[in-house]
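User: Can you help me understand a structure? I only have the sequence.
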Amino acid sequence: MSDVQLMTQMDVTVNSGGELVLPPRLVIRDATFTLDGVLTGVDTLTVGDGGTLTCSATGRTANSSASNYALQTFVVDGRTDGGAASALATLAHGVSLEAQSLQLVHGTLSVHGQVSLEAQLLNLTAGASISGAKPPSPVRSATIRLRNGNIIRGHSMRSTGPICSLATLTVNSPAYITSQR
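Assistant: Let's start by predicting it. Here is the structure, written out as tokens:
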């Protein structure tokens, strides 16, 4: 069995109380993946072109409590050879995503309500964004934490709805922030 599971042109929903066991690397392309239950075995999750991932507060990765998703690598990369790319990952209110490497290359990470992102490396390129939800679910807060000695590289953070507080960025020294335009 391969260590990569490619989900393409197939929509999957893991219902609350359900569990899906997959190889260490999962790529979602031209498909919708809704996670209300448990995802087991995946260390690297990539949302590719045409892929949509929704992580709910009832879902989780194995060995985590509800609403907590722990991965080695989380990637949103909707690049294609031609045309506009579309990759979307949505985190519901109350979700916490922890990854050693959080790569937002080309696409959108949409946060709904209070969401927490924790990463060793957060790479946000010019073709990607972290976006607040449109009404009626305004972003109340999104927290991004970096551990000591880690790096955030970015281009933009934006909101498309009314905001009380878009983001709290906590950087523990010595961490580095760089930005490219």
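Now, to help you interpret it: The radius of gyration is 15 Å. The chain is about 0% helix and 60% strand. Let me know which part you'd like to focus on.
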